[in-house]
Each structure stands twice: as structure tokens, then as C-alpha cells.
Recover the amino acids of this structure.
């Protein structure tokens, strides 16, 4: 990450030379911009308002290797720039906990580090692609071998600001897929696990966002209230932790932020869903969250939503073909309900394997609009990454 700091310092120095008066303060300011905070961070209000999402070294190094492997030099140059974009680091197994510290060793005070908490027992109960390492019933393991060690590590970084996305897809699945046996079996572990995570991770330098699916999921008229209730119950079971800001939406998703009319607004069932884009979804869901008793701010994943019109059906979620990197992370959203546009899903990491003989093969990853071949969820897909770069809006 040294390269990034150099770039920041250079920008600050340029500013200094252009404006003579603060010359003495210049170098100090430049150094401070790249340094960690000197005192403990206590977050209040929108944590992204004055902070940039940190470009974690884990994803940066995936991107750098990918760019180095490209033969098209123009594309490689564009691809390399992705390494400087802030994104969330997924802690998707207990063993991944070991990379957290090295990824936090250089977070500047001007930045906020993003982590995804993602290891519930019976994970991904309505699909197969992201089935996790813990089985239904492993809640004590989730608590003592996953959440507790993460809390111990994060307590070593009181001077760093964090944003956490809590357990993608879990509670939304309990709202809409509870008819599936696997989700029934997972339900109590999800509810207790999420509440435990929220309670233990409630630290002053952390802002938490509970995953709320997307407009095509909990945005259906009939799902808004039950969805808000499910999330608010977890929040209240955790003792209404101060540092929960609200929800994360469109995580690893494809919905546009404010495309109007929305991508699926002409579908035969569109009349039953007013949340045709993520902006509308938040406008509808936030008041429901508040009346259910929890905060209603949102962050929205814009990592892969640049190109619309690709999905045959709204619910298609796996490696959608033709996608492009979307709006870069920013706390300037122009929407008082939206704390930030963020990159949660690390673009280039697969959503699921297209190998029909694999144990975690999910038929969604074999659909016509899914990119093939694709490796196991979380594994790098070079060809897919290249397309994300080519189709990026804004372009790199
Ligand atoms: C996978 C995880 C991975 C994450 C980010 C999920 O679909 O199941 O293993 O860390 O995506 O790529």
C-alpha cells in the first residue's frame, strides 16, 4: 500500500505549492493524511462522511496479480487502478481471521476499513454456492472460534475506524425462504448468531450494517414489514447496540441505484414491488426499519452494478455475464438515508462454481445469463474480472 500513500502525499504537496499561505503546515498535513489516527476513534453520524473506504491489501494484491497476468497492456493499466479502490474484506472462514491484522496495519486516519462478517452455521441456506464451513448446530463454535477472536483483534485497533457488513443473505433468507428445510433448520442459529455478533462487535470505532438483501428481495410490498421486523428483532435481541447504523443492501448484487424506470418495472409482477431500484428500496425500507425499532441508514454495494439489462430474471444472482464495475465508494451520495456507496463484493471473486459435478454447484450458476466457466465462490475468475474492467462505468 505504500504506492497509495505516496500518491496521497503527492496530491497534498501539489495543493500546498499552489496555495502559498499554509506552506508551513503543508508537509505536516501531508504526513497526517497517510498516518493512522493518534487517538482512539469514536464514530458518530455517518462514518463515511469524512472518511474514504480503505483499499485493503488482500484485494489489492489479487488485482495486481490479475493485472500483471494480462497481455493487453492498455487493459492491464486500467485493471491496475482497481487496486486503489476501497473494498470490504470478507472473513468467510475461521482461518481467514488470520489475515485481518496484516490488512489493518496501515489504515490512514482519513480512511475506514470495511469487513464482512460471514460464517454463520448453515450458511447460504437457500442456495448451495456459498454453503459455509459451519453446520447447523455449530453456534457455540461460531461464537467462540469466529466472533470472539475477531472481537479480540479489532480491540487491538481502537485508533482505526471500521464499517462492518453483518452476515449477507442470512436474515433475508428467513423472511422469504423459510419454507425450505435448510432455512428452517438454520433459523435459530442465524437469529442468535447475528444478535451475538452485533452485541460483541459494538465498539465505539465500529459502524455496523446488517445485510438487507436488495430491492428485488425484501423490497416486495409484502416483504417490507416482515423484513424490517426480522432485522429489528436481531438488533433488539443484541440490546439495541449504539453502533448499528442500519443496513447494507445490494451486497454482491446487480441492481442499479436510481435507474428509472427500474430494470424490472415492466415485468408482469412489477405491480407488487415498488422498490424497483435501490434508492426506492431504501426510501421504502428505512421507515419500516424505524417503525420496527431500529436505525434505518444504508450503505449500498455498487461494485458490480454498472451495466443493467443483463439478467433474465431479477432473482438471478450468480456471476451475471457482461457486468461492469460501478460507482466508486463514496460518502457523497446526495441521499440523507444513504451513508455511502461501497464496494462490498470484491469484483473478480466468483459467486459460485459452474461445475455441475461440484458439491456446491447451484443451478443459478448454470443459467444462461451466468458467466461460464466460473470457479468456486470466492475464488478468482480472471476472465470475469477483465470484463468488469472493460465494462466499468465510470471507466478506469
Ligand atoms: C463466498 C465467499 C467469498 C465472498 C466474497 C461469497 O460468495 O462464499 O467465500 O469470500 O463471496 O467473494
Amino acid at each position: 500500500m505504500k504506492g497509495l500513500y505516496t500518491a496521497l502525499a503527492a496530491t497534498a504537496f501539489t495543493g500546498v505549492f499552489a496555495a502559498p499561505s499554509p506552506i508551513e503546515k503543508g508537509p505536516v498535513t501531508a504526513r497526517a493524511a497517510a498516518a493512522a489516527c493518534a487517538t482512539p476513534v469514536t464514530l458518530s453520524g455517518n462514518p463515511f462522511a469524512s472518511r474514504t473506504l480503505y483499499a485493503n491489501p488482500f484485494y489489492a494484491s489479487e488485482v495486481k496479480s490479475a493485472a500483471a497476468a494480462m497481455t493487453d497492456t492498455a487493459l492491464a493499466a486500467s485493471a491496475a487502478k482497481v487496486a486503489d479502490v476501497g473494498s470490504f474484506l470478507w472473513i468467510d472462514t475461521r482461518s481467514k481471521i488470520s489475515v485481518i491484522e496484516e490488512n489493518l496495519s496501515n489504515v490512514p486516519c482519513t480512511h475506514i476499513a470495511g469487513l464482512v462478517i460471514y460464517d454463520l452455521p448453515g450458511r447460504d441456506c437457500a442456495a448451495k454456492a456459498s454453503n459455509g464451513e459451519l453446520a447447523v448446530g455449530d453456534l457455540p463454535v461460531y461464537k467462540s472460534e469466529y466472533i470472539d477472536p475477531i472481537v479480540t483483534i479489532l480491540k487491538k485497533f481502537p485508533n482505526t475506524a471500521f464499517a462492518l457488513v453483518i452476515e449477507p443473505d442470512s436474515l433475508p433468507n428467513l423472511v422469504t425462504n423459510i419454507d425450505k428445510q435448510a432455512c428452517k433448520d438454520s433459523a435459530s442459529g442465524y437469529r442468535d448468531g447475528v444478535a451475538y455478533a452485533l452485541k460483541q462487535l459494538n465498539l465505539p470505532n465500529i459502524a455496523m450494517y446488517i445485510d438487507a438483501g436488495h430491492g428485488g428481495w425484501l423490497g416486495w410490498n409484502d416483504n417490507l414489514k416482515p423484513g424490517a421486523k426480522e432485522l429489528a428483532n436481531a438488533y433488539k435481541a443484541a440490546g439495541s447496540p449504539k453502533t448499528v447504523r442500519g443496513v447494507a443492501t445490494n451486497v454482491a448484487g446487480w441492481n442499479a441505484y436510481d435507474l428509472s424506470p427500474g430494470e424490472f418495472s415492466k415485468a408482469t409482477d412489477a405491480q407488487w414491488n415498488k422498490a424497483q431500484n435501490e434508492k426506492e428500496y431504501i426510501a421504502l425500507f428505512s421507515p419500516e426499519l424505524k417503525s420496527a425499532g431500529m436505525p434505518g441508514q444504508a450503505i449500498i454495494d455498487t461494485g458490480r452494478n454498472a451495466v443493467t439489462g443483463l439478467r433474465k430474471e431479477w432473482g438471478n444472482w450468480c456471476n451475471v455475464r457482461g457486468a461492469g464495475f460501478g460507482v466508486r465508494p463514496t460518502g457523497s451520495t446526495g441521499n440523507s438515508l444513504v451513508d455511502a456507496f461501497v464496494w462490498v463484493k470484491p469484483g473478480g471473486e466468483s459467486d459460485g462454481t459452474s461445475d455441475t459435478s461440484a458439491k456446491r454447484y447451484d443451478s443459478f450458476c448454470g443459467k444462461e445469463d451466468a458467466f461460464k466457466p466460473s470457479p468456486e465462490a470466492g475464488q478468482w475468475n480472471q476472465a470475469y474480472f477483465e470484463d468488469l474492467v472493460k465494462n466499468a462505468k465510470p471507466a478506469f
